[in-house]
Design brief:
- With 75 residues, the chain is α+β, with helices and mostly antiparallel strands.
- 20% of the residues lie in helices and 25% in strands.
- The protein has a domain at 31-75.
- It has helices at residues 7-10, 17-27, and strands at residues 32-36, 43-46, 59-63, 70-74.
- The chain has a 4-stranded antiparallel beta sheet, with no helix packed on it.
């Protein structure tokens, strides 16, 4: 019995640890929400990108970089 490796896996290029870590941190950069700050009207950004609170319903922490308003929105 011969093993079969799909073509896309034969050409798979592995990343270095540094490349992997850099790609993970880009995910954690500032994430806009598309929601306006109720105090100044600027866009709210996620305070902890990639984190969803285990509340019911689930929420995300957000803040305004212009006026320091803080709150949470539904995830």
């Amino acid at each position: 019995m011969t093993s079969y490796t799909p073509e896309y896996l034969r050409k798979l290029e592995l990343k270095s640890i540094e490349e992997h870590n850099k790609s993970r941190f880009t995910f954690l950069e500032k994430v806009g929400t598309g929601v306006a700050c109720p105090e100044c009207g600027k866009e709210l950004v996620e305070s902890q990108p990639g984190v969803i609170l285990t509340s019911h319903p689930p929420k995300k922490l957000v803040h305004c970089e212009s006026c320091d308003y803080k709150n949470s929105i539904l995830a």
